[in-house]
Write a structure and sequence with these properties.
Elements: H1 4-9, H2 11-20, H3 27-63, H4 67-103, E1 123-128, H5 141-148, E2 151-152, H6 153-160, E3 166-167, H7 169-188, E4 193-194, E5 200-201, H8 203-208, E6 227-228, H9 233-237, E7 244-246, E8 252-261, E9 280-290, H10 295-312, E10 317-321, E11 333-341, E12 346-355, H11 359-364, E13 367-369, E14 377-378, E15 380-388, H12 389-399, E16 407-408, E17 422-423
Length: about 425
């Protein structure tokens, strides 16, 4: 969320940022609304000050026995009271309109983010790992999983409808093993604190990480007003909401393994087969809360932490810098990690790591006390997948598939599966 003072001071820079995001320049509209709001506040303050002075004069008039003057002043105060009430209602309305407008604006991209309308403007930074060479036509993950008798979309549809899956036996164990493998690396080697957060959150928590109000249609909401988390980014980032941290406490790094729930309202017709795009999926999330000066370096660090999981699993991937038209609403800059899927003969996203600046912190009112300053400042936030567990399982099935339908297990994952080296058909 933007600081209106920054827009006042940098209207041209603000308009340029919005244009990069595919929106029209409209700082003038925002500043006109802000001008009306500030004029209303000034009017309200003047009326309140006038009322306070008249109230004192009433006391003086009464103490001196001048009832005529006192009654006249009381009448004036009554008129001011109505004026104040009207001004307060107008100020609340204008403030609400301004905050609503600001809350629906995407974050400003950093200067090194490529400009473009969509994913076609993304830039591949580098490619890592060897693409496997098969002596047979590689199958897609759902063909492998169903062939093993361990991936059941038909039963899931009976239980919940489309875009759900039932994993059984070794595949269910593999999903759990992958989560443990990822969490162990992130907590033991990279210094993240493991958290088990709530999976149901309030409106203000979803607002804090910018899922609301703009993306309400993409979320699951319960009848009593809670939201099912679309990612652990939501509760993890909000751990510092309405807090004042000390500078020496930064950075804070959190990780969690949670289910994630998304309506995928805008994904009609996309990835309808298999596990690529589900209403419910699991993910290991990474969140960092940092000093503003640390944010860019932390972004590179976080991306490297997610990459390490792919390296140890022996999966080929590429690092992609997203364009202004493809990155998320709250991001200043985003790297996607795309893993190679032989069955699709392409790279697909498996992690997205974003730096958000103070965009989320302002929405959460999350601040810190600088060591060398008396003025509080907003923290900067980052989030990333470390990794999407279901998509990692997909990548293993496709990259480690064998001609007979079995699947080899990456060496790094075998200790988490009691030494199992292959998944075999039931």
């Amino acid at each position: 969320m933007y600081n209106i003072r920054w827009i006042r001071d940098h209207p041209e820079q603000f308009d340029e940022a919005m244009e990069k995001r595919g929106l029209e320049a409209f700082s003038e509209e925002i500043l006109d609304l802000d001008k009306d709001r500030r004029a209303c506040v000034t009017e309200l303050q003047e009326a309140q000050a006038r009322r306070n002075l008249l109230s004192k004069d009433i006391g003086i008039a009464k103490s001196s026995g001048d009832e005529k003057t006192a009654n006249a002043l009381i009448s004036d105060v009554g008129e001011l009271k109505v004026k104040i009430q009207n001004a307060e209602e107008k100020e609340r309305r204008l403030t609400g309109e301004l905050n609503q407008m600001l809350s629906e604006l995407p974050n400003a991209p950093l200067d090194d983010v490529p400009f473009g309308q969509d994913e076609t403007a993304n830039v591949v930074i580098r490619t890592e790992g060897e693409i496997p060479d098969f002596s047979f036509e590689p199958r897609q993950h759902f063909e492998i999983g169903e062939g093993l008798g361990l991936m059941d979309f038909e039963t899931a549809a009976k239980l919940s409808g489309a875009r759900f899956v039932v994993l059984r036996g070794a595949l269910a164990r593999m999903e759990r093993a992958l989560a443990s493998f990822m969490l162990d690396i992130h907590t033991q080697e990279f210094g993240y604190e493991e958290v088990v957060p709530p999976f149901l959150v309030r409106d203000e928590v979803m607002f804090g990480t910018a899922q609301l109000p703009k993306f309400a249609e993409d979320q699951f909401r319960t009848e009593d007003g809670f939201w099912l988390i679309p990612t652990a980014e939501v509760p993890l980032t909000n751990l510092v909401r309405e807090s004042i941290l000390e500078e020496e406490d930064l950075p804070l790094r959190f990780t969690a393994y949670t289910p994630c729930f998304r309506l995928e309202a805008g994904a009609a017709g996309k990835d309808t087969r298999g596990m690529i795009r589900q209403h419910q999926f699991s993910k290991v999330e990474l969140v960092s809360i940092v000093h503003p000066d640390q944010a860019i370096a932390e972004h590179e660090r976080m991306t490297g932490c997610a990459e390490e999981i792919l390296r140890r699993l022996g999966l080929s991937y590429q690092v992609v810098l997203l364009s202004t038209g493809d990155m998320g609403f709250g991001a200043q800059k985003t790297y996607d990690l795309e893993v190679w899927l032989p069955g699709q003969n392409t790279y697909r996203e498996i992690s997205s790591c974003s730096v958000c600046g103070d965009f989320q912190a302002r929405r959460m009112n999350a601040r810190f006390r600088p060591t060398l300053s008396k003025e509080l400042d907003f923290v900067h936030t980052l989030n990333g997948s470390g990794l999407a567990v279901g998509r990692t399982l997909i990548a293993i099935l496709e990259n480690y598939q064998l001609a007979n339908g079995n699947v080899e297990i990456p060496e790094a994952l075998q200790p988490y599966l009691n030494g199992m080296t292959q998944i075999m058909a039931n």
